[in-house]
C-alpha cells in the first residue's frame, strides 16, 4: 500500500478540514516539505509486520444451516484442535465473533465487516489452545457489540436457550446461548457495559468480567480502551475459575494490563462461604425498571449465602445510581473515536495493531446506512458531543470514575464483595421484524444500570444464575476488590454447591 505525495487538491482539501487557509504558494511549499514523510511511510510499508505466529492448523469452517443452528448462536463452525495435553484437554470453547481466530471469518455482527478474515489468533485463543482446549468456532455477537439484547446482529437474532423468541442478552449473545445449551464448555465474552454479565443473567450461565486488564485484550476488536474487558462464560463456577486461570496474565502487548495480578482461582473452590463479608447494595435494588421477582430472588440468594456462613449487611452507595450516567460520555465518545473513526484501534497506546482489520474496517464510511440503529444512535450523539463540546465531558467522566471507584472501595475496605441483581429484569421478548427504532434501542440498552458502573470503576464482577422468575433466569452479581476474583469464585461456588439454581 505505497503512500503517494498528495496532490495540490488533496492538500487544499485536508487544510480546509483542519481550518487552515492556504495560498497556492503555501500548498506548493507544504507539498515539497512532505516528501520526507512520504519516504518514511513507504519504508514502514516495506518492512514485515511482526505479528504472532499461528500455531495450530485450521480451516475457514462453514456458516451453519438453520437446522444445525436453531438459536442463531453460531456465526461460523470451525474445529481447531489445541495441544494434545494440558489443563483444558477435552474441553471445548467458542470465540465471540469480535475475537480474532486466524483463517476463520470474523464480522463482529456487522454487515460492513463481513468478508474479513484475520491472520492472527487473539492471545486468549492461543492460550486456550496451548492448554489443550478445542475451538469449535465463532459465536454470534451484536452489531459491533452495541447492544445488551440479542437482536441487532446482522446474521440474525440469537434466541434465549431457555425460551425461543426471547432475548439471550448481549452483546455476547451467542456465547451465552452456546454455553447454556451445552454445545461448548466455555465461550469467550466481551464486556464494555455488561456484555458478559448481562447475557449470563438473561440466559442462565456464569460470566466473569475480571479486573480491567487481567485478561489480555490483544486480538479482540476494541470498542474503547477504558472499558474493554474480555473473559470466560461457562455453565459452572469451577469451569469458569479454571478457564480464567489459563486466560489471565500479561501478554506484553496490551496496554490495559497495568499492575496485573493473577491468582490460582480454582483454589477458592470448596472453601465455602463462612466468614465472607458481603455487602448488599441498596441502590442495586428497587430501581425504576426493577422487576419484583428479580429483586426477591437476589435477596433470597443473599439469605442463602448467610445461611452458608457469610456475614451479610446492607449498605448504601449513592454513587452507584450515577454510574451509568458517568459511563455514557466514556462509552459514547470513546467508541465513536476509537472503534469507528479510529478504524477499530485509534492511536496513542502501545498495543498489537492488526492493520488488516484497520484497512477492512475503514470501509464502513461508504456503507454507514447499513450500521445498526443502536450504533447510529451512539455515534450520532458521540460525534455531536465532540463537535459541540470537544473532549471535556469524556475527560470529566474519566475523572468522576475515580470518585465512583472510591465509593465502592470505601465499602470494599470492610467487605469482601458487593451483591446486587446483575440486571433488573429477566429476558425480554425479541423485537418483532419491522420494530420501531425506539423499541430496538430500548431492548438494547434498558438493562445497563447495574453492570456498566463496574466497567469504568474496573472492579471484577461476576454474574451467576440464582433462580427463575416467570420461567426465565435471574442473575446474581458479585463485585469484588481489584484482583479479588478468587473471593468471588469462593462465594459463587458455595452458592452453586448448595443446590440446583433452577429450583431455587
What does it look like?
With 504 residues, this protein is α/β, with parallel strands linked by helices. 34% of the residues lie in helices and 14% in strands. The protein has two domains: 8-46, no CATH class; 66-503, Amidase signature (AS) domain (Amidase signature (AS) enzymes, Alpha-Beta Complex). It has 15 helices and 13 strands. The chain has an eleven-stranded mixed sheet, with helices on both faces. Strands 4-5 form a two-stranded antiparallel sheet. The termini are far apart.
Strand order of the largest sheet: 1-3-2-6-8-7-12-13-11-9-10
- Fill in the CATH topology of the largest domain: Amidase signature (AS) enzymes
Instruction: Summarize the amount of helix as a percent range.
Output: 25-40%
Strand content: 5-15%
Low-confidence stretches: none
- Tell me which CATH architecture of the largest domain applies here: Alpha-Beta Complex
Shape: globular
List the helices and strands and how they pair.
Layout: H1 8-17, H2 24-33, H3 35-46, E1 74-81, E2 92-96, H4 123-130, E3 134-139, E4 159-160, E5 163-167, H5 173-180, E6 186-190, H6 197-203, E7 206-209, E8 230-234, H7 237-247, E9 277-281, H8 292-307, E10 311-315, H9 323-340, H10 355-361, H11 373-389, H12 392-412, E11 417-421, H13 437-445, H14 453-457, E12 461-469, E13 472-480, H15 485-497
Parallel strand pairs: 2-3, 2-6, 9-10, 9-11
Antiparallel strand pairs: 1-3, 4-5, 6-8, 7-8, 7-12, 11-13, 12-13
